[in-house]
Amino acid sequence: MATILEGRRQTQPRSSPSGRETSLWSSGFGMKLEAITPFLGKYRPFVGRCCQTCTPKSWESLFHRSITDLGFCSVILVKEENTRFRGWLVRRLCYFLWSLEQHIPPCQDAPQKIMESTGVQNLLSGRVPGGAGEGQSPDLVKKEVQRILGHIQASPRPFLVRLFSWALLRFLNCLFLNVQLHKGQMKMVQKAAQAGSPLVLLSTHKTLLDGILLPFMLLSQGLGVLRVAWDSRACSPALRVLLRKLGGLFLPPEANLSLDSSEGLLARAVVQAVIEQLLVSGQPLLIFLEEPPESPGPRLSALGQAWLGFVVQAVQVGIVPDALLVPVAVTYDLVPDALCDIYHASAPLGLWTGALTVLRSLWSHWGCSRRICSGVHLAQPFSLQEYIVSARSCWGGRQTLEQLLQPIVLGQCTAVPDTEKEQEWTPITGPLMALKEEDQLLVRRLSCHVLSASVGSAAVMSTAIMATLLLFKHQKLLGEFSWLTEEILLRGFDVGFSGQLRSLLKHSLSLLRAHVALLRIRQGDLLVVPRPGPGLTQLARLSAELLPVFLSEAVGACAVRGLLAGRVPPQGPWELQGILLLSQNELYRQILLLMHLLPQDLLLLKPCQSSYCYCQEVLDRLIQCGLLVAEETPGSRSAYDTGRQRLSRKLLWKPSGDFTDSDSDDFEEAEGRYFRVCFKKLPLEGGGREVMPEPRDNYAP
């Protein structure tokens, strides 16, 4: 795996062999300055719009064309202008003065309001199961409620929050080069907060730093203290005490007990009362819907779904008329090694362990110019009440995965109907099991919908593009980096960088310095070689960030590969693949079977998107990239001849919310359409021939 960087050096190489590679890093690449144009000539795409099918009213509100041109800002950039004071002393104490000026609303009477809530009073009076009247006195139940309440939360300490914000600001400036935030996205969230409904942020999860960076970001933008739902299994008791005083929430272990357990009923009732009080008071809430990286099990977090279930139940019973959900994504150039190691540890993170981790991060970045870039991406807020009404209206005709595939396995059906699969692909915890079956289904679909929106709004960082180019042996980084950036933007995804191409390459390779090696092979040429072992694993993990961008092409290529493998024997010539014709009907069936085979949290399909629409999207992508070319069989009607078609009965597309009818008519209509796989031959190093798809010139819409 080697990649050549072409360019002329401006300085002479050092004569010491031991400092050969170090000189290449320190003196720069010395290439001619070339400006990268990753914005299609004019603008970056504005990502993060909410679903127009599920929430059409929210899609129209909180958005204006002007907010797309507001640009970006760095959250950790605090200067004299960010305070009320001026002078040379203010410039040296601006971090401290900024932390003192942050508005932190008091909430001293929150525990008393929770004790006076309807749910807790029903427990104390014995009117519901699990409370007083089942062999327990009201005083004992009250003490148990207070104990559970102390485990869940504590009143935030304003002095501690300000002190922690000041220390965190200094830490982030030492660790990060910038933390970008789109002003237009932040303006949408601020307008949503002024509307009166509580905000619930549903975020992806990359590292432990996410739960600290997001509250700091909202506090700096004047939205108050963000209450973060932490995982109690990942924190020691001492650290949980600190996080509670900073606004953290922890689910009590009794909440995961069985439905017939009195302790479980009591704990879930107290958690529900806490969530209701937070929503009524208007405090923003942060829930992580994604499991940490490399964690065993599904990608969608069961704990995050449990917290979201409490929010959904509070809206359904009318405690608050509505809540606004905000999909959030946090991206990093590279997660610091010290912060990444604490997630892989088997023991919970302790208070002193966290402090040592921070010191290790500061020591590794002390006096180092290779600082990391990060970005916080906020999607358009949408109404939870509107989503609930819209989701329940399109539940008819849904079938389980067993009901879908059993007729095909038995040979009773040749076409997969256009019905979304329903399968238990995430573990259900005790809080979620306490809900009704239709509410459980609502929470799971809502979680998948929001996680898909969060991943779609996340920007692709420069290190992910560089890791992909290195792993797949691209020879010329200068041109391939710009080409891959354009391909990402053409698919509606954003990138988290801009600037000159030489600077971007130098920044990316300097961050990946521990995983790659730079060698000079001849005058003016540099060889970039990935280091074997853990370096390849880290590059593969970074390149996985591009999977959502090219997921449709990957599914379509697997479908085409499966069809061709069934027609051409393994010993046969692969050149015959360019002659074979693939019908659209066969492609649809193969894509549908792949959809049912692959995990749902890998595809991240929105529940409102029909299977037929996804198949058509995959097919369009294959045609755009030039892998498939439309062909007409002899005697068949032209695919462009629509004069005899009855558009009222047989449309080439279906509404994305129509789940009632099957796709039998669409499969019959697609029977006469055929495609040919487009190939070209490239010579291999060993003298053989390799069959490769022939790319198209552009991706014109």
UniProtKB/TrEMBL annotation:
Pathway: Phospholipid metabolism. Residues 1-24 are annotated as: Disordered. Keywords: Acyltransferase, Membrane, Transferase. The gene is GPAT2. Residues 10-24 have a biased composition (Polar residues). GO terms for cellular component: mitochondrial membrane. GO terms for biological process: fatty acid metabolic process; glycerol-3-phosphate metabolic process; phosphatidic acid biosynthetic process; piRNA processing; triglyceride biosynthetic process. Signal peptide: none annotated. InterPro entries: GPAT/DHAPAT, GPAT/DHAPAT_C, GPAT/DHAPAT_LPLAT, Plipid/glycerol_acylTrfase. Its main location: membrane. Belongs to the GPAT/DAPAT family. It is found in: Membrane. SUPFAM superfamilies: Glycerol-3-phosphate (1)-acyltransferase. This is Glycerol-3-phosphate acyltransferase 2, mitochondrial. Pfam families: Acyltransferase, GPAT_C. Residues 199-333 form the Phospholipid/glycerol acyltransferase domain. One of its GO terms (molecular function) is glycerol-3-phosphate O-acyltransferase activity. The keyword Acyltransferase applies.
